[in-house]
Amino acid sequence: MNPNRRGVWPWRPVICGLLAAALAGCHARSAAPANLVPDSARARWAVGRAMELWKAGRPTGVIEPTEPRIQVVDSNRKAGQVLEDYRILAETSSLRERTLSVRVRLRGPDEEAVVRYLVMGADPILVFRQEDYDLMMHWEHKMDPEAEDAAPGPEPPAAPRRADEDLPRRPSGAPG
């Protein structure tokens, strides 16, 4: 054994063990927990429950009593507009959410549209309209209609005056 390497060999198993533990720990944290993305049946149940309550005239928010609870976020509903019918068309899934496309037929005013809902969580199950989820992810929100119509704010303050503005000016040809 080389005398210069004598102190390195006893530490090799310890170093390899620490490296393996660190790599295993990093891998386990990189994936999203599977239980935060509801399975297809549970996601369809949550969206269907939200649609049925919309048909019944109930507002968005926490739907109770259900087990698990459902939280619906849909700020694009127009006041007085009623859901007449709906049909779940398609479904996709990712590591973070399950997305369902829903054809909705609305009355008052009449409208038909395909709306995407993102479903995630375990209890509560969160049902986000795609537009609301996008606004939340970008730290934005729909503006309050009253705030848009508000009077304009005060005028910005005038620029500060220079100290020599009040002094009389010398004529251009005067000696200095």
UniProtKB/TrEMBL annotation:
<keyword id="KW-0732">Signal</keyword>
<feature type="signal peptide">
    <location>
        <begin position="1"/>
        <end position="31"/>
    </location>
</feature>
<feature type="region of interest" description="Disordered">
    <location>
        <begin position="144"/>
        <end position="176"/>
    </location>
</feature>
<protein>
    <submittedName>
        <fullName>Uncharacterized protein</fullName>
    </submittedName>
</protein>
